Amino acid sequence: SQQGEEDPQALSIQEGENATMNCSYKTSINNLQWYRQNSGRGLVHLILIRSNEREKHSGRLRVTLDTSKKSSSLLITASRAADTASYFCAGSPGGYQKVTFGIGTKLQVIP
Amino acid sequence: GAVVSQHPSRVICKSGTSVKIECRSLDFQATTMFWYRQFPKQSLMLMATSNEGSKATYEQGVEKDKFLINHASLTLSTLTVTSAHPEDSSFYICSATTQGTDTQYFGPGTRLTVL
């Protein structure tokens, strides 16, 4: 079964607005990672948050993690058209172990 | 740093032929590499995990005789799709990780089309 389930599956916003994507997972994790994928391309690692962290920032990205609710959120502030992509969360037990991807949120930022 | 390349980026082949896809870590030693496939508008599904010098571990439902994985060095893993059929058409993505990090670094993917 999928480790992560993103919500919403599709999101369309105007440039300059904030975009929030949520992710829920089922089993225990050591860390949760967010990736971005442009259409037909590989994945780009955005940010990793560990199970003992609650919030992390990187540029216009803000990630939160609530291990009690087994959920995470990715906030992109002041969105740009170039942020248009699919965003995936992936939970990992850590180390060299496999990550399991959610189904993704397709974000469209309208100029 | 932490760049992973894949070759080829696109391949079209006839049904029944075999196709080899290479995944290379360019500036780090990849102790573990992962192979995923992605169908259109869907998420990535892990196919197998490969550690340098040992046999790959395949996920349930993935035929190991059909998807041959070789991880001969710390910088190269190959996936060979044997006797390819149209249903094998997909986007194949590799990732690599190394000691001391939990982050997986992804290659750009290979688009396989089987006619």
Helix vs. strand class of chain B: mainly beta
Q: Which percent range fits the helix content of chain B? A: under 10%
Beta strands of chain B, count: 11
Number of strands of chain A: 11
Kindly state the mean pLDDT of chain A as a whole number?
88
The amount of beta strand of chain A, in percent, is: over 45%
Strand content of chain B: over 45%
Q: What's the tally of helices of chain B? A: 0
Mean of pLDDT of chain B: 91
Order of helices and strands of chain A: EEEEEEEEEEE
Give the low-pLDDT segments of chain B: none
Helical amount among residues of chain A, as a percent range?
Answer: under 10%
- Class by alpha and beta content of chain A: mainly beta
Q: Multimeric state of these chains?
A: heterodimer
- Euclidean distance between termini CA atoms of chain A: 36 Å
Main β-sheet description of chain A: 6 strands, mixed
Largest interface, per-chain counts? A-B, 25 and 25 residues
Radius of gyration of chain A: 13 Å
Distance between the termini of chain B: 37 Å
Strands, helices and their partners?
The complex is a heterodimer of chains A (111) and B (115).
Chain A: E1 4-7, E2 10-14, E3 19-25, E4 31-37, E5 43-50, E6 55-58, E7 61-66, E8 71-76, E9 85-92, E10 100-101, E11 105-110
Parallel strand pairs in A: 2-11
Antiparallel strand pairs in A: 1-3, 3-8, 4-5, 4-9, 6-7, 7-8, 9-10, 9-11
Chain B: E1 4-7, E2 10-13, E3 19-25, E4 32-38, E5 44-51, E6 57-58, E7 67-73, E8 76-81, E9 90-97, E10 105-106, E11 110-114
Parallel strand pairs in B: 2-11
Antiparallel strand pairs in B: 1-3, 3-8, 4-5, 4-9, 5-6, 7-8, 9-10, 9-11
